[in-house]
Amino acid sequence: MSEMVTFRTDGAIAEAVIDNPPVNATSAGVRQGLADAIERFAGDPALKVMIVRCEGRTFVAGADIKEFGKPMVGPNLTKVIEMLDALEKPTVAAVHGTTLGGGFELALACHYRIADPATRFGFPEVKLGLLPGAGGTQRTPRLAGLATTIDLVTTGKQINARKALDSGLVDRIAEGDLAEAARAYAKELAESNAPARSAGTLPMPEDDPALFEESRKTIARKMRGQPAPLLALEAIRLGYDMPFAQALEREYAMCLEAISSPESKALRHVFAAERQVAKVPGLAADIEPRKVDKAGVIGLGAMGRGITMAIAGAGIPVTAVALDEEHLAKAMGAIEKMWGSSVKKGRMSQEQMDRQMALITRSTNPADLADVDLVIEAVTEDIDIKKVVFAELGKVTRPGAILASNTSFLNIDTLADASGRAEDVCGMHFFNPAHVMRLLENVRTARTAPDVVATIMNFGKRIKKLPVLSGVCDGFIVNRMLSKRSREGFFLVEEGASPEAIDKVVLSFGFPMGPFALGDLAGLDVQAAARKSRAATASARELRADFVEQMVAAGNLGQKTGSGWYVYDENRKASHNPETDKMIAAHAEKHGLKLREIGEEEILQRLIYAMVNEGAKILGEGVAPRPHEIDVAMINGLGFPATTGGPMFWADQIGLDKVLATIEKFRAEQGDEYWTPAPLLVERAKEAKGFYA
Ligand code: 3HC
């Protein structure tokens, strides 16, 4: 018997207990252990019912992702599940924690299911570019009907135990200890001579072509560029086209095919990278984070409010300090309105909202931050104002309290100097809206204490963010890389590409939005202000490409005024703006620019390679400790398509020699200033390595 599965018996009841931390994935040892347990149970006439359950924090959370792409060792999961399903004596899955993917399929292949009340069920395969490959698309519809199945397998959404019970996916919710409840259930089944009960013997629910058609449209709209959800939907249809056993074979073949697709490879890379960034290189494992029982936020504009909401939303008390009573009332009103709307939509209970509101201590006096363990500063993006705030925070907070700035591009070292206690100072850069966006760029200076780094990484996770560590530089990871895409976008317009053509290329690549549509949404005045703040370091050509300033001067600020790069109707639907054509033509004439046809490939390469090259600089300078930080930050902060694996992974797939050759071509055409390749890119390309090599 494998060490990962223990087989026990007590009278007529057998138990196969899986113990494969951390998440009881169906690694080779688990599959072999289960196969052995099934044989022993089948071969012993004294045994009447077998329970399958798990030790540790969860029932099986899926197939072992680390084994994907490697040769299969021992029986595959489909085979084990087939053995379970075919047993002539009943089996009971006793599930808890996150019963996901192959784990959910394992439970569905058991004949009866009992769940701990806190169990979550789901098929996250699509998030890895896969589809369920061990019967999920065939057993689920037979038990729960089409609508629930489509929702589960095409979105990766999770459902709770109550919903699973109501849908027919579990038979019972356990009261008290799960193992005890499962044994009692098994005894009951044994005593009543309950039959084996394979979901495969049930008929498929009545076909609903209209529902399938509707789902195809939803997937095309909401999951653009992702092949897996559509494959998962088509796999359900196998149940209508062929017998159960054949449908299982075909489903498994489809899953195997998906595993070797570039999208799945990229998404699995993202899954691993998102976990990798939590482990900061060079930070000793025994460094204890400082305790943070209470936090503070100073500056309650849009960012400060969002940060306050994220903290209180995670159940942590927070003192929110505004400039004056008027700003405080406005901020608290806005927070109440946002949470109130979640209550109205049924996404939050009134009690939860009241609890969260009660966690916020309102203040207009920075001295009220004397008892907090961590302050996040989110005042106006002006270095002189921030310096004054940090000098004050250095005085009013207790020694050892962490002082973090939410600045998106100002120098945190300057703020560290102002505070008088540089070792406690760091950056915590949230993305707008801060209570929604997952990414958090934590910034350490050369002087930030290691335990401060450990604390902000830990705190970020507590407030349900995805913290990524960056060093100090202008714009940190995301904004620094984005600024290169913006630069190339404006240059391309100056050279003859229309904003619409550029947006289309970016959208087809998989971004949720093109840069010009995004500019209109964010507000061209906001973009103009950002350009102004960087004017001192901008080149003459960057300053010349002043389209945003021209539109702002004409009162066209984007969506909010109904006109920007595009024109908008009352429903904010965009259409072509002839004024934009006129502006571009006049700009070209004024500066003697010759407009030319620019193909989609050049547009894409100019925009994305500019970011890749900057990413290579960020990596080479040590601002990002690894390429993982860059990929995770760009996917979660800017919407870089996850199916590419992020800019650095994507470049590796193309081959850095090819990327370098194209960058050298652009350098010859556009000049050294913009296209000098990053030394790291040159080095890796020469060695025929990737950024991840
Ligand atoms: N295989 C291998 N390792 C896994 C894993 C899996 N399926 N799921 C999680 N892990 C590892 C993580 O890499 C991490 O490792 P680390 O400690 O070395 O970094 C560790 O388990 C803990 O994971 P998290 O940090 O994510 O822990 P959380 O408690 O935050 O989340 C979880 C737990 C909800 C189970 C989350 O890890 C998760 O969503 N896992 C993926 C589940 C999944 O995608 N399952 C489907 C797999 S595909 C499949 O089953 C195909 C089938 O249809 C044939």
Give a structural overview.
The protein starts with a strand and ends in a 7-residue tail after the last helix. The longest helix has 21 residues, at 600-620. By secondary structure, it is α/β, with parallel strands linked by helices. α17 (450-462) links the parallel β16 and β17 (466-470). 51% of the residues lie in helices and 11% in strands. The strands form four sheets. An eight-stranded mixed β-sheet has the order 12-11-10-13-14-15-16-17, with helices on both faces. Strands 1-2-3-4-6-9 form a six-stranded mixed β-sheet, sandwiched between helices. A three-stranded mixed β-sheet has the order 5-7-8. It contains 30 helices and 19 strands. α5 (146-155) runs antiparallel to α9 (227-241), α12 packs across α13 (325-344) and α21 packs across α23 (547-553). It folds into three domains: 5-242, Alpha-Beta Complex (2-enoyl-CoA Hydratase, Chain A, domain 1), CATH 3.90.226.10; 295-470, Rossmann fold (3-Layer(aba) Sandwich); 478-591, N-(1-d-carboxylethyl)-l-norvaline Dehydrogenase, domain 2, CATH 1.10.1040. The model has no long low-confidence stretch (mean pLDDT 96). 3-hydroxybutanoyl-coenzyme A binds at residues 22-23, 25, 61-66, 77, 98, 100-102, 105, 124-125, 128, 130, 132-134, 136, 255, 275.
